[in-house]
Write the structure tokens for this entry.
Amino acid sequence: MTHPFTGAGVALITPFNEDKSVDYNTLERLIEDQISGGIDYLVVLGTTGETPSLSEIEKKEIVRFVIEKNAGRLKIVVGMGSNNTQGLVQQIQTADFTGIDAILSVTPYYNKPTQEGLFQHFKSIVEASPVPVILYNVPGRTGVNMDAETTLRIAHLSEKVVAIKEAAGDLAQFAKIITNAPGYFKVISGDDALTFPAISIGSIGVISVIANALPDQLSQLTYASLSGDMALASQLHLQMAEMLKLIFKEGNPAGVKALMEIMGTAKNQVRLPLVPVSPATYALIEMEYNKIS
């Protein structure tokens, strides 16, 4: 049976207007672009969505809006993570999961828990969640790496733990998890640039940033990789390599929002403490887009 989160997922940006309010018109168009571009599922309130800068009211409204506009066409994953385990458990227990297919839960940040602390944190999350859980390991942002042994220990807790979005950038860690995981648990790349190599060693896809701007190209890369068309996958990987480097040059989602403004699909607006990319990087992104478009 195909895993429910096989393929290309998109970590949706939160589009903003010039006054920094949420731009729901652009968000609706973005959802349609993802669907027509071949994306398999939507990830809402992730890192790329600038979730820490959203109010609780905005978070609820964005989730409600995406569920409504998606209208059941794609699976929806909602980011629900915290460095306060008890608070997160309470949030999960009181949330409305209508229209939500899974949660994506990041490792606790700032606290720098031990591996045992990570295990106990996710054990609590898994026990509380009424929907499948996708773990999220992104040490470059959280300050702690969840090692393969801990990931596997959590994976064996329950079939409710269906995957990990692995963004440690370590293919050896990918391989160890893939080799030893139970059948229901899969690895999803959390790095756009590792989509092709990660799938080549057994990952089932990617949760992507660049798909906000280029869903067609990202989905083509993912499916060429999954189908074993190595020649096409390699070609698409190389075509996107420089743009991927540039959109992360000054952080995410500042880079992809710059690209989307260049393409005319979203405004180049982020909320503090993030700022737009520098004029120099913007010019490089524009030059690269003109080359590949």
Remarks:
- The mean pLDDT is 97.
